[in-house]
Amino acid sequence: MAKIRDLAVVCRSKNASPFLLTLDMVFPDRKTFAKVQASGVINKGLISRLYSVREEDVLLVEFAPGNAFKATIPRLYGSGAVEDSDVYGAQQHGPLMDVEIPI
Amino acid sequence: MADQELRIIAPTAIVGYGFQESSLERALQKNPHLIACDGGSTDPGPNYLGMGKAFVGRDAAKRDLALMLQAAVERKIPVLVGTSGGAGGDAHLQWTREIVEEIARENNLHFCMALIHAEQSKEYLSKKLAAGKIQPLWPLPPLTQEAIDRSSTVVGMAGVEPYIAALEEGAQVVLCGRSDDAAIFAALPIKEEFDPALGWVAGKLLECGAACAVPRQKYGSEGITVTVREDHILVEPNHPGLSCTPLSVSTFFLHENETPIHHTEPSGILDLSQLHCEAVDDRTVKVAGARFLPRDRYDIRLEGVELVGYRCICVSYTRDPVLVQCIDRYLDNVRGLVAKRVDGMGVRPEDYKLVFRVIGKNAVMGEREPVKEVLAHELGVIMEAVAPTQDLANEILGLARQAGKNMHYEGKLCDEGCLTFPYSPSDIPAGPVYQFNMLHVVEPDHPLEMFPIEYVTV
What we know:
The structure holds two protein chains of two kinds.
Chain A: E1 2-3, H1 4-7, E2 10-17, E3 20-26, H2 30-39, H3 44-51, E4 59-63, E5 68-74, H4 94-97, E6 100-101
Antiparallel strand pairs in A: 1-6, 2-3, 3-5, 4-5
Chain B: E1 6-10, H1 21-28, E2 34-38, H2 47-51, H3 58-75, E3 79-82, H4 90-107, E4 112-116, H5 122-130, E5 134-136, H6 145-150, E6 151-156, H7 160-168, E7 173-176, H8 183-191, H9 196-206, E8 224-228, E9 233-237, H10 246-252, E10 262-265, E11 268-271, E12 276-279, E13 285-288, E14 291-294, E15 300-318, H11 321-325, H12 327-344, E16 353-359, E17 379-387, H13 390-406, E18 427-442, E19 453-457
Parallel strand pairs in B: 1-2, 2-3, 3-7, 4-7
Antiparallel strand pairs in B: 1-8, 4-19, 5-18, 6-15, 8-9, 9-13, 10-11, 11-14, 12-13, 15-17, 15-18, 16-17
Helix pairs in contact in B: 3-4, 7-8, 8-9, 12-13
């Protein structure tokens, strides 16, 4: 078992538009990426559980040239709206850091 | 020209973010054909588009622009700036224009300048909406006439076409209002008939300066140089202490988008499914395999904001171990008391908002925070009132601050004040609040229709 924070070289969040939040996880090499991919842990269900979002609202992409997984979900509120808490969407990655990968 | 190469410098990520002069000097030794820079972003939120203000300082912007203009005028090459002034509305374009004219006067520089306007009128948008030419982008619903009517400022994101038109007209300096970030840099390669896929891929990398190099931000904001060739591009950071690696470049295609594989541009899709990055030396990466899939439909993305009201905030905190554990119930009681007092003032509940942000509990993730238990020994509470006037927001915040400082809770021993404040005055009027109300695409009759170009002899 290893946590994403121990395996990844990048684990971050950011706005993908004023109404979308995107989560990026980048692994250092093809081998690690392949192992994480084979574990099947990073899937729409995981994002749905961690971010209280419906699975059908999760866009999940694997990007082999960058050894990366990317999940994009609707923001709860538009960036900078009164109820919004993170204008840049830059601090929403925390729950991913401690996800365990059986590796 | 496809058998030659085109060298493009982005000196920094955003005009005003700065860069070391020696980095630009070093890049200029490559005899670039273009110096270009992004001038803004929606990242800092809706207020800047609504207020017509920049999010960088004037002196910082002037310093960066002066170095770019001096280098370009001396070498007789163009300077392109997109999303001028931070948000690319007419006020932002005017702000940038005045800085450029000031630099020219102070340094005796002369050039033909094009100003590409990107602000959109309500009449134009209403006409396009009625004609069925405006579609929503995920996850927004279709646009309504009411949203157009409520808008304070709406901009369109220019593609490469207005830049190309301005260059063909002889402009040496082009300041554009809101722009597709990559278009600023893709315009010249596309004008010179290089593979559009390479123009767009170059633009994707150049739009954020040296963000595609490592160690990221080691020297603060810095720039890169991209060489566009017949079937690939080369990317190299301007600062000698930074390196582009195949991984740093590949992963940059994840930056601020829904998917790294398909990038939607006004005239088509940049397809990076076959992207290939390889090291040329220890600082330079060769990028190939990009494809551009043109579309019949030409789309311009819209961004709009509307005024929500006026905000007043105060920062408070508690280190009382009893209150830390019952903070939610306590703040509900505060909210209840404030609601009664505000009702007594004749203000309807739908006319104001009172927000409590509890730092140490869920201030960052709000309703999405999966950790429910409070583990901190102290909590911050930012109180915030938003109302139709600044005076009313101040008034409501004052009520909330007073209630928050003094109200009762079970087990309370600190009867002189359970929330305290780092500042006097505690209440900070924060001015107008805007929200984004548009993220749609409009189909113009012609790529230049939404972007009138003004030419100025400087």
